[in-house]
Amino acid sequence: METVMDEVERYVMGRLCKQLFCPDNTDDEKKDLAVQKRIRALHWVSIEMLCAPVDEQIPKVSDSVERAITDLIDLDSKKVPKDKLACVTRCSKHIMTAVQGSKKAAASADDFLPTLVYIVLKANPPRLHSNIQYITRFCNPSRLMSGEDGYYFTNLCCAVAFIEKLDAQSLNLSHEDFELYMSGASSPPGPKAASSGFREERCMAEPQLEPRRAEETRPLETDLIEWSEGQELSVLGMLEGTPVQTHISTAFTIDSDNIGGDSLPPPLQPQKFAG
Predict the structure, then answer these.
(1) Are 47 and 95 in contact (CB under 8 A)?
(2) No. of H helices and E strands in the chain?
(3) Within 10 Å of residue 77's Cβ, how many Cβ atoms?
(4) pLDDT in tens, 176-191
(5) Between the CA of residue 132 and those of 28, 111, 116, what are the distances in Å?
(6) Which residues on adjacent β-strands are paired with residue 219?
(7) Where are the domains of the chain?
(8) Which ranges of 75-146 would DSSP assign to H, the alpha helix?
(9) Cα 90 to Cα 160: distance, rounded to the nearest angstrom
(10) What's the gap between Cα 74 and its chain centre?
(11) How many CA atoms lie within 13 A of 113 on its CB side?
(12) What is the distance, to the nearest Å, from the Cα of residue 107 to the centroid of all Cα atoms in its chain?
């Protein structure tokens, strides 16, 4: 059944993409421009400021970063929601490879999200908001509610939300320095000036990911399993809490002598007129 749904999605969306992507009755295009402008203004944010554990001096790590950026940019070239989602998943796996190559250890969920924010800032993918909305509106719901595709897509939404709300406190900077960097009047110093302060903003995802203490570093696979289980329970709870309301209809026989006769007006009686 899953394969059939995927093929139906590919056939239908491949032909209706132009009509359904960034439709005129939405503000998707306006938000695309706002997100693109916001990311462009944050070009000065370094990987050290985000505390992302990635060492781009390592050739294999740098290659994984470039591949992640390419996959995220390629998101806009796909027509089918499943193919767009696959770009997000490939990008995320390259990020995991980059983190593992830098740390020489398994990537944790707390390493993944700040690195994803960095990749989004560097890629500044075209029509990012519209692509996220297109996937949300038309992708097979079961694909978004379970598995690694749904998990990585949720994190992309979180990364965009963080970028939209990023401020001086998020990067542990003074308000004055942040405004100078945003206006282009000044540039931040070298990597030594970078400090911790990354805060995970998970307000766009539904349901929100479980908060973790800063000292916890769990493998990403464990976080993925728990997220999938939580999604399934959430969906089941919604279905049980809002049962479908049905109306019982009363059966009757056509041409019956008694079809709600009590509520009908009396029959017309023939009358004779003197001629």
Answers:
(1) no
(2) 10, 0
(3) 10
(4) 999 999 998 989 987 6
(5) 10, 23, 15
(6) 108
(7) 8-16+27-207+217-241
(8) 81-103, 109-123, 128-138, 141-144
(9) 18
(10) 16
(11) 23
(12) 21
CA distances from 47 to 19, 69, 204 (A): 38, 14, 23
Give residue for tokens 């976080």. 223
pTM: 0.71
C-alpha–C-alpha distance, residues 169 and 172, integer Å: 5
Q: What is the pLDDT of residues 138-194, one digit of tens each?
A: 998 888 887 899 999 999 999 999 999 999 999 999 999 999 999 989 899 876 433
> How is residue 213 written in tokens?
């203490």
CATH class given for the domain over 8-16+27-207+217-241: mainly alpha
The 10 Å CB-count burial string (b at 16+, else e) for 127-163 is: bbbbbbbbbeebbbeebbebebbbbbbbbbbbbbbbb
Beta-bridge partner residues of 108: 219
Q: Are 152 and 143 in contact (CB under 8 A)?
A: no
Is the peptide bond prior to 207 cis by the omega test (within 30 degrees of 0)? yes
What value, to the nearest 5°, has the Cα angle with vertex 155 and ends 154 and 158? 95
State the amino acid at position 101 in one-letter form: G
